[in-house]
Amino acid sequence: MSQQATGLKVIGAQTFSLDGDVHKLVTFLNQTLKDRGLCFGISKRDGQMQLTIYDTGQR
Fold first, then answer.
1. Which of 26, 28, 41, 45 is 20 to 30 A from 35 (CA-CA)?
2. Distance (Å, whole) CA 10 – CA 13
3. What pLDDT does residue 4 have?
């Protein structure tokens, strides 16, 4: 999803070789840091996981 489609500003993105409960980590980060205006997303690209951090502008 593009920045235009979501209306969110991408702060950073990085691709990792990760296995396991990565989605649980993203859920934890979202629940813990949502009041600071941060949102985390994860997607699979070329067999690796890409973690993207967004600024929601809500604080």
1. 45
2. 8
3. 52
Q: What is the mean pLDDT of each run of 10 residues along the chain (59 residues)?
A: 69 91 94 96 90 91
d(CA 42, CA 11): 14
Cα–Cα distance measured from residue 57 to residue 35, given in angstroms and rounded to the nearest whole number: 10
**What are the structural domain ranges in the chain?**
3-54
The DSSP result for the chain, as a single string, is --HHHHTPEEEEEEEE---SSHHHHHHHHHHHHGGGTEEEEEEEETTEEEEEEEE-S--
